[in-house]
């Protein structure tokens, strides 16, 4: 396709005022959350049109978060794979270690503007909880983080980091004691005290206006990347890839390229051990349309509509639903989806560490794993950009454990 071809959709026109991305999205919430969500929508619309709010946001992104992040040419990885030139958008260099801080800073400034004094958030692996706790310390806001007790055990270091920033971490004992249960608990808290409390949702998920608002706060990723690749190479990339949990880093990276029909966009889900119920988190491979935690989208559920267990070596991709905007662009054929298995992810994790001196987060390693498969199929004059959503310091222990276990089982055979 050539860039002069017109595209039959306008990315700025979705969602509609009720949060619909085509048939996806919306706002499926209890009566008690209708008013707080409407107030949030109104406050967000007003703030995003206010140059003063935008200027403060830019300043915080620069001074607190560390933007802009570089676009990095992965020379030795490119040579090793022998195909497309690979560029990495370095969100791993941001404060607190991942893209999450872009959204946190935006929502906390909005909460302050709305006169809220208390912040709540959910967290799975702890990355969103750490970013939120750090932001609350920065702005002097009270902070409560909900986290499944199973996740607290697995991510003890992040629990300590949150507490160091002054946050209260509340363990959730319901259900599987992981992310989905923490979201339920945070929603319950918000219902009880929405007057003083803002709920900082951590991905492009949930009821309107969250998927739109979280996307907008991450659009800076793609805005910078587009300008950087044009400055560096004089042209647009051929393909972009990013890992997709809820989908916030991916939609933020892709958004400014949606209108460029010649740029292929690929979201990479967690293929886990294999695509079989309970063994993965690839909603577009094993899922169906349904409603979870406020939004209509693709989910992993059984015949009776019960949410299935999910698995991924990376905690940040281990969630049963995907953001509704991704479901929408998939239905239009604008974003393609692939998955990478745990094993492919761990190989990419080692490869980047070894060949570029960069330890990627296990989440980001899914996007890289796709790149490892894809780059050799492309020609040397083509460009593949991958969003490196976070750094892997948090994952080193887990990777060592899993890789060590793998070695033992293969030598004992
Ligand atoms: C949380 C996280 C993700 C997954 O969340 P998205 O909303 O899909 O971006 C991906 N990468 C890193 C490093 C994360 O911390």
UniProtKB/TrEMBL annotation:
Residue ranges occupied by any Tryptophan synthase beta chain-like PALP domain in the UniProt entry: 65-386
MF GO annotations: tryptophan synthase activity
Its EC number(s): 4.2.1.20
Modified residues (N6-(pyridoxal phosphate)lysine): 100
SUPFAM superfamilies: Tryptophan synthase beta subunit-like PLP-dependent enzymes
Complex and partners: Tetramer of two alpha and two beta chains.
Stated name of the protein: Tryptophan synthase beta chain
Organism: Puniceicoccus vermicola
């Amino acid at each position: 396709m050539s860039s002069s071809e017109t595209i039959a959709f306008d990315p700025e026109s979705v969602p509609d005022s009720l949060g619909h991305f085509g048939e996806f999205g919306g706002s499926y919430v209890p009566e008690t959350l209708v008013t707080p969500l409407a107030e949030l929508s109104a406050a967000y619309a007003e703030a995003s049109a206010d140059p003063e709010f935008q200027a403060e946001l830019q300043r915080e992104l620069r001074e607190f978060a560390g933007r802009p992040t570089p676009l990095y040419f992965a020379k030795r990885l490119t040579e090793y794979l022998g195909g497309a030139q690979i560029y990495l958008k370095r969100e791993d260099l941001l404060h607190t270690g991942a893209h999450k801080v872009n959204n946190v800073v935006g929502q906390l400034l909005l909460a302050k503007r709305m006169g809220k004094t208390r912040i709540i958030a959910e967290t799975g692996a702890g990355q969103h909880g750490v970013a939120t706790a750090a932001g609350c310390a920065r702005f002097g806001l009270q902070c409560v983080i909900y986290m499944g007790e199973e996740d607290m055990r697995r991510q003890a270091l992040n629990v300590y980091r949150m507490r160091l920033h002054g946050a209260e971490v509340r363990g959730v004992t319901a259900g599987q004691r992981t992310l989905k249960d923490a979201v339920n608990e945070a929603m319950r808290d918000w219902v009880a005290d929405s007057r003083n409390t803002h709920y900082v949702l951590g991905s492009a998920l949930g009821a309107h206006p969250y998927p739109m608002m979280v996307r907008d706060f991450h659009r800076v990723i793609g805005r910078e990347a587009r300008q950087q690749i044009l400055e560096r190479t004089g042209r647009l990339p051929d393909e972009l890839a990013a890992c997709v949990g809820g989908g916030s880093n991916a939609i933020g990276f892709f958004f400014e390229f949606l209108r460029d029909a010649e740029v292929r966009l690929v979201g990479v889900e967690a293929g886990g051990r294999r695509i079989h119920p309970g063994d993965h988190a690839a909603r577009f491979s094993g899922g169906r349309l349904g409603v979870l935690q406020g939004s209509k989208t693709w989910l992993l559920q059984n015949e009776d509509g019960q949410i299935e267990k999910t698995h991924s070596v990376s905690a940040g991709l281990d969630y049963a639903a995907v953001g509704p905007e991704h479901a929408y662009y998939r239905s239009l054929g604008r974003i393609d989806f692939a998955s990478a298995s745990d094993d492919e992810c761990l190989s990419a994790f080692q490869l980047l560490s070894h060949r570029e001196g960069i330890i990627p987060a296990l989440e980001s390693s899914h996007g890289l794993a796709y790149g490892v498969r894809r780059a050799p199929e492309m020609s040397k004059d083509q460009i593949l950009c991958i969003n490196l959503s976070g750094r892997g310091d948090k994952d080193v222990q887990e990777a060592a454990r899993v890789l060590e276990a793998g070695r033992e089982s293969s030598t004992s055979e």
